[in-house]
Amino acid sequence: MSALSDQIPAIVVRELSVKLGETEALKQVSLTIPRGQWTALIGPNGAGKSTLLRAIAGLTGQRSAIDLLGQPLVGMTGRLLARQVAWLGQNEQISSDISVYDLVMLGRLPHHSWLSSPSAPDHQIVEQALNSVRADQWRDRMISELSGGEQQRVLLARALAVEAEILLLDEPLNHLDPPQQADCLKLIKNLTKHGCTVLTALHEISMALYAHQIVIMDQGRVLFQGAAHDSQTHRAIENVFDDKIKIYPLMDRWVILPS
Ligand SMILES: Nc1ncnc2c1ncn2[C@@H]1O[C@H](COP(=O)(O)OP(=O)(O)OP(=O)(O)O)[C@@H](O)[C@H]1O
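YS: structure for the whole thing
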């Protein structure tokens, strides 16, 4: 990234409203997500976190309120969008008759011309993606034969294989055991060091506090945005959860306990 492109935010959302059935899932949401950082969306169930991620991925139809990397989402071709934004959905349903390797290779689709075979670099990128989530040993297994946490790691590998500049991860720690959660956080941090912008929805507040910044949502609105290490952010988090949790400093990090 050049110094100039560095100044362009990764994501800009302007007064975005999304209605799902009778529910106003997002109400006039405005937000700027800086480039090359990890931002964690947190908030109670039903706050609108997944809907916001889906809207940014171009999946809800309300594209005119969103810019990605300085370009309006509206009018962006599907192919360009699929190269710029990689997506890991919450509780994704996967077809049972696909191998782990082939599933991760699907992440390379936006880079292929119609019906072309994967190239040597595509295979190399898939290998790297499998290695980075330690899923290479399952490469020949069918995805349906893996546990929930193992499937989650493979889906993360598919998102990594896109090599997109923006990574949208909806509850990426779902089903992962504590060491795998720690590895996932390291991976996210490492991606940002290489210029990637990562936006996650997370329920694990103690993990979310490792992000660069936090966006707090409730009832379809953004209530607060601030640095993860800032005590004001911590108070806003406690507030949105009705002060039923409390954030305490521990060494140079924080722990979250029921209050
Ligand atoms: N397909 C749908 N049809 C109607 N309403 C929906 C639909 N999907 C979500 N909603 C509603 O939209 C609101 C926002 O849902 P969303 O999934 O974005 O919340 P969330 O913050 O991701 O929640 P969670 O933490 O439980 O995953 C909720 O009130 C939800 O009930």
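YS: worth flagging: The first helix runs from residue 3 to 6.
IM: good catch. Also The mean pLDDT is 93.
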